[in-house]
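step: validate -> pass
step: tokenize input -> pass
step: predict -> running
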Amino acid sequence: MNTIPRLPLLQSGPRSPLIRGGIVGPLMRGIAVLGVLLAFGFAAREPVAPWRAANAASAANAAVRVAAATANSVVVIPVNGAIGPGSADFIVRGLQRAANQHAQLAVLLLDTPGGLDTSMRQIIKAILGSPVPVATFITPSGARAASAGTYIVYASHIAAMAPGTNLGAATPIQMGIGGAEPPGGSGSGSGNGNNSGTPGLPDMRTLPGGAAGSSAASPPGPASGPAADTSASATAAPGAASALPLDTQSTEMRKQVHDAAAYIRGLAQMRGRNAEWAERAVREAVSLSDEEALKQHVVDVVARDVPDLLRRVDGRTVTTSAGSVTLHTAHAPLLTLEPDWRSRFLAVITDPSVALILLMLGMYGLFFEFANPGFVLPGVVGAISLLLGLFAMQMLPVSYVGLGLIFLGIAFLIGEAFLPTFGSLGFGGVVAFVIGAMMLMDTDVPGYGIPLPLIAAVVVFSAAFVLGVSRLALRARRRPVVTGSEALIGCVGVVLDDGLLPEHTADGMLAGWARVHGERWRVASATPAAPGERVRVTARHGLTLTVVPVSSARAPDALQGERS
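step: predict -> pass
step: emit ->
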């Protein structure tokens, strides 16, 4: 026999709805609207597809026309200023764009005092690996391609100069914050080939193994051969070894100069240019004008402007990483590239002055956020500024000792605002910050130093900030307490009810009630006080205040209590 109770299908009585509240109607309306939209979407799908196909076809045709128009174009990449991470990124991406558009030539319009070695080598690698021929054109008149610019000119497939321009002075700059002349250094040179040395560098003509010694002893010409070079180098070697001590600084300088000389000699041999003058440009820091560079086969063309350059190189065959290319540039269209937001952004944040300011803003922003949690904005700005500053620093030749001194100086300045050091930490922070800022950039390349006025302005701002914070902190400490139990001490109240009379005693004290700060408090006093009399709070024990009469004068009943 089945004993399981069976429930009927429908039971009488009210049933609770599955979805409670008044949201059933809006929910159903929303579902209906969604269904209508889906229906319209599926209905419009078929007519839209041909329209999209037509659009895609027209876009493809436009892309083909653009590609056909740019396939034989000449891409112009202007570069002005010091060679750094921003300009290197712009040139590399410009060459990549020229390769993607199958341009027949890329022209670098160069005007630079030099730049960073890492950025220069990044550009040269892109030029050597480019399937599109690269012509470096030193322009306009009065421009120069010094230091790193000379290496870029030698690495290019075509080297050109405008009238009134110059190139050379490719000696590696001494690293560090000095300007101090190493042992064995000689006087300053003029940079024209007859100089006796370079400021801050030893006389490269007397270095062991230096090819500059022979070239300086006798002018270059057919009479000077390998035998003369060997004998001159062998004669100069003992004197050079005795004149220049083998300390760490001079050894590091030899390594830099020899490495740079070998690098530019290899580029010159690859492009079939004057390798001897290239090595002299490194060892002796010599320079050449446009006519002299053309005569000595340092550059290939002297042209007035870009159209003149394209007419002069028309029909020339050059060898790239993709093979031999014959140029037809006489009537080729020009496509000039401009730096986009990325290149401008990199150029701005990799400026050493901007990077230093970003670091300072980051430190102060995070300090203010940690000291006053909840403001949020200083913490957000500080974190972003600090990360951008550190990103810029990792792209620049930074001395980590100088960076550490900057952080230490900022920490000392912040500590001065909270610790009673009587200015010791503040003075030490200013000194550490100034020394660290001067040591921050580990190079003397033009355009990559931090100006002394900026350092002074940052120090004055930091000192003013610390002094302002310290003054505000001292003023806050001198103010009376306005919250908590300590705020009641010294307040004046009014006795209530029957007052403090001898018949109301508690523990040998007169007891009663008073209104203090608008609140009703239990008070005790050793002196009687009548109702309405003013009393002053002297102590607090739990919920009982100890008071003394202020005067015998009666106060209005509405008096709420005040600070004397």
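step: describe -> The two ends are 95 Å apart (CA to CA).
step: cleanup -> pass
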